[in-house]
Amino acid sequence: MTPLRQKMIDAMLVRGMALRTQRSYLMAVAELAKYYHRSPAQLSGEELQGFFLALVKERHLSPATCRLYLNALRFFYLHVLGQDSFGVKLQVPKQEQRIPELLMRSEVSRILAAHGNLKHRMLLSTCYGCGLRVSELVSIQIRHLDGERRLLRVEQGKGAKDRAVILSPTLLQLLRAYWRELRPPQWLFPGADPHSPLSIASAQKLFSEAKRRAGVDKIGGIHSLRHAYATHQLEAGMPLHQLQHQLGHQNIRSTLRYVHWVPGYQESRSGGDLLAQLEQPL
């Protein structure tokens, strides 16, 4: 391992960056070095811009991925090399701002019922029932569930923050039945190896399969269940500050973007038991 790579790892560790972010940032810097066959510390601003041009023209990477590379290089040059600029203003494609296609309750119901596999059905139900990110979903351990207080402890969510998410009565009942049936020892949703969690890619894949079986052709991956949770809870009157906490948003503006789906939004004391309101039994 080169001293620069070790210095970058240390810089990310001391800032508490998520492991996935660390891996992505290291990959971006490594690919830059591989592209020019030189240390990134020796490259000019013009060469950096040439690298981003290659990402678009030769590798056809999306604007979102190009932005990830840019953030990784910014971190490297600022916190590892101690440079506050690249020497030029790097240009990357603008990311398209699209409103997600919202899943209706009937569509969520069909998706959750599409899997005959109990573990897969429970995973999707938990994702929707708590509005979790997929990385948070697959990281749930049995010890994170507090049945007495009806809480789920989400450890090291986005921004390396812990939070407690409310479990609805219906979801808690389903989770208890699931545990009695399968008795997972550590991870709530284990992978092929019971000592390891289900992978994010596997969770995405089983959602896509359930959506196909349910005949739902709306664009979006498993994150669509999180969008549906947020919108349906606003329809049920959940206060914005409570929804912000449930979703783990650092800034209330991230939560406010869901209000456009609920033009007649009226805040009440709490949200709803979403799984209990679905049209079909799970």
Specify the helix fraction band. 40-55%
Which CATH-level-2 architecture of the largest domain? Orthogonal Bundle
Full CATH superfamily name of the largest domain:
Intergrase catalytic core
Please provide the count of β strands: 3
Percentage of β-strand residues: 5-15%
Give the neighbour order of strands across the main sheet. 1-2-3
Helix-strand category:
mainly alpha
Oligomer: single chain
Task: Write the element-wise H/E pattern from the N-terminal end onward.
Answer: HHHHHHHEEEHHHHH
Please mark out the parts with pLDDT under 50 across 5 or more consecutive residues, or reply none.
none
Q: Report the average pLDDT across residues.
A: 88
Instruction: Output the number of helix runs.
Output: 12
Whole-number total of structural domains: 2
Shape: globular
Largest sheet: 3 strands, antiparallel
Distance between the termini: 50 Å
**The CATH class of the largest domain:** Mainly Alpha
What structural keywords apply?
about 280 residues, mainly alpha, DNA polymerase, domain 1, hpI Integrase, Chain A, 2 domains, three-stranded antiparallel β-sheet, globular
